[in-house]
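User: Hey, quick favor. My workstation is busy. Could you predict this chain's structure for me?
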Amino acid sequence: MGHRHDDSNNGAVSEVRHLPNPYQDWDELTNQRLLVKIQAEHPLHESIEEEEEEEEKVINQFYNFKASSGNAPKTSPPPSNSGLEKRGPETSPQDFVENAGVTKIEDFALTPEGKFDHVFEAKIKEQLQILLNQHVKSEQIDCNDRSMYTGLPGVSLLYHHLSTKQCLDTKFREDLAAKATHHVNQYLISIQTQHMHNSKCPSFLCGDLGVYTFCALARTQQKLHREMLTRTLSYPGPGLALSQSAPSTPGVLGAELMSPSQSNHHHHHHHRHQVPFAGVEQINNEPETGTLLEKILELIKMQEQSGTPDELLYGRTGGLYAMLLIKQQLPKQNVIRDEHITNHINIMLKSGQTMESFGRPLFYSWHGKEYVGAAHGYAGILYMLLEAHKYLNDEQLKLIREAINFIQGIRYPSSNYPSSIGSQTDRLIHWCHGAPGVMHMLIKAYQVYRDESYLASAIACSDVIWQRGLLKKGFGLCHGISGNAYAFIHLYQLTRDRKHLYRAGKFAQYYFEHNDSIVWRADSPASLFEGYAGLAYFLSDLLDPDEAKFPTFQLTASHPLDS
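Assistant: No problem, here it is.
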């Protein structure tokens, strides 16, 4: 699979893998002054038509400014995949970025409610259009790759996610919903004809478990949406192509169903679109959702066999995520039950309590190494176990806490974390290896155990990500700038400190300013975890940061403990 297991020293101890951060950190007074300036120069209008015209004018002004400065955005199609340089896991890259001549985007401001100013939001929407039109296309994905990580299902998930963003252009969302639904039907045909079962890799991110889960949830959500349309006399607004069945706990696959008052509000704002999403094809009825859930359970039981790793990408942690997601979004289904989750957790914890634990509370390894990060290591495993905390007993909670304390105690003086136990090379700041992935674990630990030391460690992680998180590797999720920025958003959700949201916005701004100057080292440049699809997912979540979630990893958005 495409994941780059990049934690070996390769003799490059002194290699610098991040770019200098060119931005000033958060300052409340500066933000207040800038917000007043932006609102004065670009006032909002009460009329929706006037507001939309103003947004188009802002975008046009931005393009004209770029053109007049000799840095007009490129509109030609990107080069084919054949022209992209492929790099394997052991390649020692020449990571150099030329920043000369880059036009600086005007700074943004944050509102007291934790939203970006409307001019910056317009830039995000414009960049989403460019990304989807030029860089995220199904024909750029290997048709034989059925993984969420680098394959077409990850792009389908992005299409669906964007189709639920009601602040985006309705026609844009309709087109993406149609693509996502078409993909789901193609997957279902493959499942029906038994062309999709891969018993050698029953994982969520890198195997067929993710595809089965996506299809089961998408089918049920679209059915609920169509039933909602049937029950209403007038269409309730732009709607959802694949809306969610559990409004109280929105997951990665959807947004909340609208209340009647919200429906009337959105209908008023989008009266020019009579029935959006009416042209989206219906998801096939075969195989039935119950059959898909039974197949999901079968794949998860395969994970529980001896010899299966416990990590996220290929192992049992992905199976736990799938079950928690299904229980969250399909609460009325009775195929995957509480006892299945409890049994899976018991197997994972028993696997970590081996004779090889060297006195540690839990011992997990993958390919002979004790990885620490979210992709293959303790951070991802312990984070997901805490997502399932309501299924844990007191003894299990104590054991997991001891394991978290052990990981917390091995951080470097910089507040970064080693890629694997015993590594002395403080260089990787990735979601997969380093502080960004560990930070999610620490935030969840703080929520479960109410231990202030976990929050302090998470804030320290945030600082090192701010200093060293602009990566030369590019803007992807797994080992890129977008994945690092999700850690800022997660901490903002917990603390409501806008400094962390500001930092996430600055990482997005870095893309706006430098997208033509960074050589993106991705084997799958259009994919969810390595490429542009992950960047687009992150940018779209900046439009609604309170509900943002790292895709296929976070089950719920965080909120302050006192709320």
